[in-house]
Amino acid sequence: MSLKIAAEIYPKSPSETVKEPLVVVKEYDEDRHKVAVERLERLCEVGQSGKPSLVTDLMGDPICRIRHFQLHVMLVAEYGEEGEVVGVIRVCVKTVTRGNSVYIKLAYILGLRVSPRHRRFGIGTKLVEHLEEWCKKKGAKYAYMATDCTNEPSVNLFTKKCGYSKFRTLTILVQPVHAHYKPISSNVAVLHLPPRLAGSMYNHMFANSEFYPKDIELILSNKLNLGTFMAIPKKYLSRCDPKRGILPPSYAILSVWNTKDVFKLQVKGVSPLAHACCVGTRLLDEWMPWLRLPSFPDVFRPFGVYFLYGLHMEGKRGAQLMKSLCGFVHNMARDDGGCGAIVAELGQRDPVRDAVPHWSKFSWAEDMWCIKNLEDTKKDIQESDWFTSRSSSPVIFVDPRDF
Q1: What is the pTM of this model?
Q2: Is residue 245 left, alpha or beta, with left meaning phi > 0 and alpha meaning psi from -120 to 50?
Q3: What CATH number is attached to the domain comprising 29?
């Protein structure tokens, strides 16, 4: 199941027939819509009966996942004369690379919800269409959304009804936070880089990647950013000077985003036996940490996530250093009682992907990104169009604000 809150649309029974509803789309007004939107979110979080589900607590802030973008909006769909909120959708607009250091204005659509009682009325499509018009007015040339490739209703809505095309497929890697600490080699030194230096290094490292944000400095200086860290062989410590561009032959770098201050996750619907087994592994790990058992965090209560981004490695020891760096972040999360997992999202051809520790049972290989050209579709697609150009880099930069 995807951590992305994308379009989760489920069909009504074919036997149910209702009149075409009167639906009006408006911008979100906190005083008028907040309570209704929170109620709608809870209605849409109910998973399939008898099966585990991952629910999201927005902690009383319906726009928390787009708040950190300068350009953002949330639209609501009101139904009937009483203005019942039956749908909601969010979007942010940012400037990113599309490869080869070429920047373009892009909209990211997320958080599409439609009330279970009002699905199959075209409300989702109407929300997307209104949102696209808003994005065009803000200068966005493209719009994209992300969802689990197995979420057929979401994929079908965007690709079959709204004109989006399947564009990129990423892998989401999830590492639980154990009760024990991860061992870090005594031969590895971890440096904490200041935001300005980290931004300068990222501008060089990710110039040819896709989706690299132009406002990286704002991200790195945001209060949710816990820091940028570099792992190097300790023997190079005295000769390493990142400020002057002097780096060792091998190194690894990443940044950490604290999503637990934005939203919380919780697993519901597991069997009592599965719950007991998970709790048991945690207790054993706490009582006997020297065994370093692969324990489960307490995901049955609300928990937060650390999101890793800006992952890059160089040299023969790059993979080993990246694993040490992930272990360092794990230990940071271990000391933070509210963090239950560490997550990274990477392109399927990204060489860093194989170096990031994760549990396959918690991770998923196909987070589908679908994209649409918002410019006049009647015009012939130019040679420079994003769809026809091939990126010179296997790296896709995932903005932590998108997660």
Answers
A1: 0.89
A2: left
A3: 3.40.630.30
> Per residue in 279-292, pLDDT tens?
788 788 788 888 77
Range of the domain at 259: 174-266+304-367
Tokens of 385: 């169009």
Rg (CA), the chain: 22
CATH number at residue 207: 3.40.630
Which DSSP string corresponds to 204-261? HHTTTSEEEETTHHHHHTSTTEEEEEEEEEGGGGGG-BGGGTB--SSEEEEEEEEGGG
Q: Find tokens 């490739």 and name the residue.
A: 149
Do 324 and 188 touch, CB atoms closer than 8 A?
yes
Report the alpha-carbon distance of residue 130 to residue 26 in Å, rounded: 9
Together in a domain, 139 and 55: yes
Distance from CA of residue 337 to its chain's centroid? 22
* Cβ neighbours of residue 6 closer than 8 Å, sequence gap 6 or more: 110, 111, 112, 145, 146, 147, 148, 151, 154
The rounded distance, in Å, linking the Cα atoms of 32 and 38 is 12
The alpha carbon dihedral of 188, 189, 195, 197 has a sign of negative
Single out the residue of 214, 63, 211, 75 nearest to residue 133, CA to CA.
75
Mean pLDDT, the chain, integer: 88
